[in-house]
Amino acid sequence: MSKIKVVLLLTFLASSTGIFAQGQLSDKPIQNIEARDKVTLDGLWSIIVDPLENGYYNYRWQPKDNGYFMDAKMENPSDLIEYNFDTSYQIMVPGDWNTQMEKLYFYEGTVWYKKSFDYDLQPNERAYVYFEAANYEAIAYLNGEKLGEHIGGYTPFQFEVTDVIKEKDNFLVVKVDNKRLREAIPTINTDWWNYGGITRSVHLIKTPQTYIKDYYLQLADGSTNKLEGWVELNDDTSGEMVQLGIPELNISEEFEVRNGKVEFMLDARPELWSPKNPKLYDVYIKMGENVIEDEIGFRTIETDGTNILLNGEEIFLKGISIHEEAPFKTGRVTAVEEVRILLQWAKELGVNFVRLAHYPHNEAMVREAEKMGLMVWSEIPVYWTVLFENEDTFKNAEQQLEDMMIRDKNRAAVVLWSIANETPVSEGRNTFLKNLADRARAIDDTRL
Known about the structure:
Layout: E1 4-7, H1 10-19, E2 37-40, E3 43-49, E4 89-93, E5 110-117, E6 125-131, E7 137-142, E8 145-151, E9 157-160, E10 170-177, E11 202-208, E12 212-219, E13 226-233, E14 241-246, E15 251-256, E16 261-267, E17 281-287, E18 290-296, E19 301-304, E20 307-310, E21 313-314, E22 319-322, H2 336-348, E23 353-356, H3 363-372, E24 375-379, H4 391-408, E25 414-418, H5 427-443
Parallel strand pairs: 22-23, 23-24, 24-25
Antiparallel strand pairs: 1-16, 2-11, 3-4, 3-5, 5-10, 6-9, 6-11, 7-8, 7-10, 12-13, 13-16, 14-15, 14-17, 17-18, 19-20, 20-21
């Protein structure tokens, strides 16, 4: 049994709410969806290509109340309904539309997606629809009701659907628009293909009313014999007991929640993760029937002058950049088997780290790299000449940075958060990047 020191720091907890908030456009995603009670919505979805935005705007360029998201049906010949998901094309999710339909290879604009499903939700449960990614702007509707929207093509987002979902005949409609914009992140010109669509998996996640939403567990700063971290619930509940266990380290502790959160520190001497020894520990966090399991590694990363130190020892980073391109077909990576092939090719070249260029890759890429002993450089697509003087452009970049860091904060393989690539020097650019770097360090100062 380890000795645990439970510390409830109100100042820390208040700041963590802001630091790890998802923002105004969508709810902060649930951590570690693979450990959740979930149902996949992957598979064939019906689509309608809408280059003129007829499904969203009226002829005065105002949003419609009865757009394609209503999935209206023609009841008599006089009904002015000029779309029909039931007879439209179908494509696979996850996947980009460019490589699934030849006529859409160069298409940039709006495509409407629709998926029908039934669902069993009990009165004491919550339900969420979770998108691993959709490129670039997504607006989601369930049963005709708007859930919310998300901007950014490479990070996850979710919406609670507890009050909207039904037992039978649900229809989820998503408007996805991949038009390149000068003010966007990335901007109009890049050197990778602008794949459009729901490019990563979609899940329905079921939780208890009060559940473990997020958590963090790593070595304490400056120590290799102490672990620190926190657990966050989805509400401000107090008095619940949360258990933390790392069986291989003989750790099994219980501590009390205050205002939906706890912070803790405990004694431990874990084997350290490294490329030569990619050690991961089975970890569980439990509150009642809500059990979250994860595999977590522990390591230190720091600099000494111009040297990089991993676990206190100098290491030379031998790396290669990888794009999220499928290895034996065109299009985005959509399967973990493709992830493993790309990473194995990197290993065969003798590298010990990979740069996931130039945007956050899918979560499987980071987790599989960790298992294979590859350090990871994770990056947001502040690429080339974005509008550095534009406040909304900065907020967009900042949000994508937070999204990436929230998702992968427990991955020991991630040793570097990258905020930009090949940007032209200017006063505006310097301010933009300094503010991004400050934000990254405020969220996580344990990485390069």
